[in-house]
Design a protein that fits this description.
Bound molecules: cytidine-5'-triphosphate
Number of helices: 14
CATH architecture of the largest domain: 3-Layer(aba) Sandwich
Largest sheet: 7 strands, mixed
Shape: elongated
CATH superfamily of the largest domain: CoaB-like
Oligomer: single chain
Radius of gyration: 27 Å
Strand order of the largest sheet: 11-8-12-15-16-17-18
CATH class of the largest domain: Alpha Beta
Distance between the termini: 28 Å
Number of domains: 2
Strand content: 15-25%
């Protein structure tokens, strides 16, 4: 679930060999890593080495991926991040001036994803005003830079220009990809989808919940490092769901009820299939247990999150539910979110803090919810 497409651009500096460790680590973390090398970089480390650790052909002047008619565009199209490590003074100068004279600089210019640069060079070259102006230009255009370290340099001198520890780069990459594990060590129970209440031996009372929000929450919670239990409510009636949640509740830190839980069930479930001969058929419904309210009464420090799907007066109704159910946080959605891949949302917490999210893919809404939970839990 962590896997993202990352382009690692390698330019020709003595620190090139250290980028092998970076690529290897990113690959082992589950990312899809595409290495792009300049000709000079290929003189320091053979492309075969990068090919072996990334398990993908390296893209260089001599080799472009697949049969793509415009390789530098195809290369960066669905990339989540472009990392340039090490970035030499020469390539930095080219990029700062928008030059595109090889596969690396061309694809860098074409990439629309976030970009991270790891300059590494001789201390005098790094301190040179021209290099500093170029780096500032790159910062101003939205690139993120990791400052080189100070210490012993390959040219035999001391100074600032050393390639940093790969773990420093990985931490920055995680941050840029939103993979910082803010919920590591937390157990989170998530319900999604809609419950199904039996009416007779074959028919059920169901709803249109697709379960997409629940699954997006599970993915975002895992990305944040949490230990996740996901319950698909469509496999249960309300009582069954209550029993399933109860199996896990005592051991979790957070319960997120994204499931659309039936508010009513049939007062009597016919043990046989109801015949279709009658002109009118009345089924008496009776209220189900409010699961969030029930678990709020059982809690021993668990953080409780509810959802509210409203046609009108979104905020007011959500606020009421937050209080009535004894929740820490409620996510209010408009009915239009049902079944869609996108959703707007208002996050309301028990302290009265309100955050309104614009229309976003559900995974992004889920990530924002995890950020809120993490911030609240860590005080
Ligand atoms: N919920 C629950 N137990 C129920 C019904 C709902 O725990 N029997 C939870 C849902 O999982 C959701 C929140 O409560 O997190 C929704 O609250 P609910 O009062 O059912 O509101 P809606 O169904 O959204 O709206 P309404 O009350 O207007 O039907």
């Amino acid at each position: 679930m962590r896997g993202k497409k990352i382009i690692v651009g390698v330019t020709g500096g003595i620190a090139c060999y250290k980028a092998v460790g970076l690529v290897s680590f990113l690959k082992k973390s589950g990312h899809d890593v595409q290495v792009v090398m300049t000709e000079n970089a290929a003189r320091f480390v053979a492309p075969l080495t990068f090919r072996a650790v990334s398990r993908r052909p390296v893209c260089s002047e001599a080799f472009a991926p697949g049969d793509a008619p415009v390789p530098h565009i195809a290369l960066v199209e669905d990339a989540a991040l472009f990392v340039l490590a090490p970035a030499t003074a020469n390539t930095i100068a080219k990029l700062a001036n928008g030059l595109a004279d090889n596969i690396l600089t061309t694809s860098f210019l074409a990439a629309q994803c976030p970009k991270l640069l790891v300059p590494a060079m001789n201390a005098n070259m790094y301190a040179n005003k021209l290099t500093q102006i170029n780096l500032q230009k790159l910062r101003d255009s939205g690139c993120v830079l990791i400052e080189p370290e100070t210490g012993y340099l390959a040219c035999g001198t001391q100074g600032t220009g050393r390639y940093p520890d790969n773990q420093v780069i990985v931490r920055k990459i995680d941050e840029l990809l939103g993979l910082t594990e803010k919920l590591r060590g937390k157990k989170i129970l998530i319900t999604g989808g809609g419950t199904r209440e039996p009416l007779d031996s074959v028919r059920v009372l169901a709803n249109n919940s697709s379960g997409k929000m629940g699954l997006a929450l599970a993915e975002a919670a895992e990305q944040a490092g949490a230990d996740v239990v996901y319950i698909d409510a469509s496999a249960y009636d309300v009582q069954g769901l209550q029993e399933k949640i109860a199996e896990h509740f005592a051991a979790v830190d957070v319960l997120i009820m994204a499931a659309a839980v039936a508010d009513y069930r049939a007062a009597r479930v016919s043990p046989v299939k109801i015949k279709s001969g009658q002109e009118r058929l009345t089924i008496e419904l009776t209220k189900t247990a409010d699961l969030l309210k029930y678990f709020a009464g059982q809690r021993k420090g668990q953080y409780l999150v509810g959802f509210a799907l409203e046609s009108t007066a979104l905020r007011e109704n959500a606020e009421k539910k937050l209080k009535e159910k004894g929740l820490d946080l409620i996510v209010a959605n408009a009915v239009s979110a049902l079944g869609s891949n996108e959703s707007t949302a208002i996050l309301l917490d028990k302290h009265g803090k309100i955050e309104t999210l614009e229309l976003l893919p559900k995974i992004k809404v889920a990530e924002k919810i995890m950020e809120r939970i993490a911030a609240d839990m860590h005080g």
